[in-house]
Amino acid sequence: MDQPSERDDEADDLMSTLEVIEAQPLATRGEAYESLHVTLARRLEASPGTPS
Predict the structure, then answer these.
(1) How far apart are CA 51 and CA 9, in angstroms?
(2) Torsion, Cα of 37, 39, 41, 43 (10° steps)
(3) Do residues 7 and 13 lie in contact, with contact meaning Cβ atoms separated by under 8 Å?
(4) Is this structure's pTM higher than 0.85?
């Protein structure tokens, strides 16, 4: 049987996070989305990549 990859786990974690955010009252979603944006931006900047 195939093992779930780290990328699959990250996608599942992201979907779970988005579901939690969407379940919050509208007034508090903005801060939650901002926090998620900061977290994802940091991960992207820290990831090794090839220049465009």
Answers:
(1) 26
(2) -150
(3) no
(4) no
Tens digit of pLDDT at every position of the chain (52 positions): 455 677 778 888 999 999 999 999 998 999 999 999 999 999 999 988 755 5
Q: Give the list of residues 6+ apart from residue 18 with CB closer than 8 angstroms, or none.
A: 36
The label of the residue with tokens 């900061």 reads 38
DSSP per position, 5-44: PHHHHHHHHHHHHHHHHHHS-HHHHHHHHHHHHHHHHHHH
